[in-house]
Amino acid sequence: MFESLTDRLSGIFETLTKRGALKEADVDAALGEVRVALLEADVALPVAKDFIAAVRERAVGSEVLRSVTPGQQVVKIVNDELVATLGTENTEINLAGSPPVAILMVGLQGSGKTTTTAKLALRLTRQEKKKVMMASLDVYRPAAQQQLATLGEQTEIRCLPSVLGEQPVAIAKRAMQMARLEAFDVVILDTAGRLHIDTELMGEVAQVRDAAEPVETLLVADAMTGQDSVNLAREFNEKVGVTGIVLTRVDGDARGGAALSMRAVAGCPIKFMGTGESTDALEAFNAERIAGSILGMGDVVGLVEKAQQVVEAEDAERMAKKMLKGQFTLEDMGEQLKQIRKMGSLEGLLGMLPGAQKVKSQIAEADLDDKMIARQEAIILSMTPHERQNPKVIKASRRKRIAAGSGTSVQEVNKLLKQFKQVSSMMKKAGKMGKRGLMGGGMPPGMMPPMPPGMR
After folding, report:
1. Which of 8, 145, 359, 360 is the most exposed place for a label (fewest CB within 10 A)?
2. CA-closest candidate to residue 286, choices 231, 247, 339, 325
3. Which helix (H) or strand (E) holds 252?
4. 158: Cβ–Cβ under 8 A, 6 or more apart, which residues?
5. What domains, with CATH codes, occur in the chain?
6. What is the C-alpha to C-alpha distance for residues 221 and 295, in angstroms, rounded to an integer?
């Protein structure tokens, strides 16, 4: 998300930060370009106007023009205003109240409500340790209730059994009653959507809200809806009352204007982002990290959190010790590749690294993608255990067999083995340098372990 905006802003600010003193005209020219970039990213015009006005008020003052690093100060001001626009309020899900508490999912048809319901239920079960029940109130879309039931089976989360002919308000009441009897903590109500906003839809959602008295009413919106997201947020907030927003398909939206626009128009926080199709691809929204990502500063904290979800601390420590002792094997490299694939798309991970935008062309030229990771993993899996532990035995005939077994070429096998040798050599040197080399600033440039392995 925000890829196009990040590209534009990176170019604008790179020019600005290279200059020494800044004149008011320089700031105005840069902000004019920022305004165009925001509009091209599908940010609503009123939101873009307010954003530029707020930045300019601070940027043309003595705070910037008399600063030692005026260009950097402008970037900081833009970052601060992005955070303010995206929301500085607490985005934690509200579960306060006597259990069971209800969470109402609203939005248009096709926005991803049902999938998001299952994702949120899984998140609350795993991270908040809550006993969650899901209930589908969509009696109009064919197989909608069956879809949620299937997702319930996949995630092992209870789903309210459907009753033929039962209407939405009655389903909500039955769900709350059953949840009380069976001591559930949370009930997530997946309401029906329409292809457009209409009186009937709003009336039904309002009736369900009154019956369930939810602690949260979350508007689920497709990040790719662009300018329409503003009307969507305004209508639902005025007619139903929205406490939070969940943006779906953010991994497929390069512009990201919906995030900036919806938060400003609805006046309620963006709480979650759907970042993929899997049931665990739901991330908490953090304005500071998103702003940093937009300005090319990366999201290292988010990257670490992703790693922590797939890598146990003890395993990471054990692997580090092996690597520093020069005992890193192809088996270990294969395990790291598997962990990287679990963390999400390679493009998304690289985008979380500071300065990734500046080396975007090099990344593209190097053909670094998810398919490349899969091919490398396939190559290692096609080796025998003996070959993984002793790469030196992999001569020409073995390389041909490995290439045939993995569906790759001998050249790709050679490339992987060369990369493995580079990483092993680097780790041995780091091990000899000891802690001073790793922590004391003595490690030569470029000697930090690559991510993913072998991508030097």
Report:
1. 359
2. 247
3. none
4. 132, 133, 134, 152, 184
5. 3-86 (1.20.120.140), 101-294 (3.40.50.300), 300-439 (1.10.260.30)
6. 24
Strand partners, 106: 219
Q: Model confidence over 261-274: pLDDT tens digits?
A: 778 777 788 889 88
In 295-355, alpha helices (H): 300-310, 313-324, 330-342, 346-351
CA–CA gap between residue 120 and residue 68 (Å, rounded): 47
Query: What are the DSSP calls for 74-124, one per residue?
Result: HHHHHHHHHHHHH--S--PPP--SSSSEEEEEE--TTSSHHHHHHHHHHHH
Alpha-carbon distance of 57 to 101, in angstroms, equals 44
3-class secondary-structure state, position 162: coil
Q: Which two tokens stand for residue 434?
A: 């000891």
HSE, side-chain direction, 13 A CA sphere, residue 375: 18
Q: Which two tokens stand for residue 312?
A: 């146990």
Distance CA 372, CA 353 (A): 19
Which pTM value belongs to this model?
0.64
User: Does 405 score more than 70 pLDDT?
Assistant: yes
51-58: list long-range contacts, CB under 8 Å, 24+ apart: 51/81, 51/82, 51/85, 51/260, 54/81, 54/84, 55/31, 55/81, 56/27, 56/28, 56/31
Find out whether 357 and 10 touch, Cβ atoms under 8 Å. Answer: yes
d(CA 281, CA 248): 10
Surface-to-core class of residue 444, CB atoms within 10 Å of its CB (0-12 exposed, 13-18 middle, 19+ buried): exposed
CB neighbour burial string for 210-232, b if at least 16 within 10 angstroms, e if fewer: ebbebbbbbbbbbbbbbebbbeb
Per residue in 36-85, pLDDT (tens digit) is 888 887 788 888 888 888 888 887 765 555 554 566 677 778 888 888 88
Angstrom distance (rounded) from CA 178 to CA 172: 10
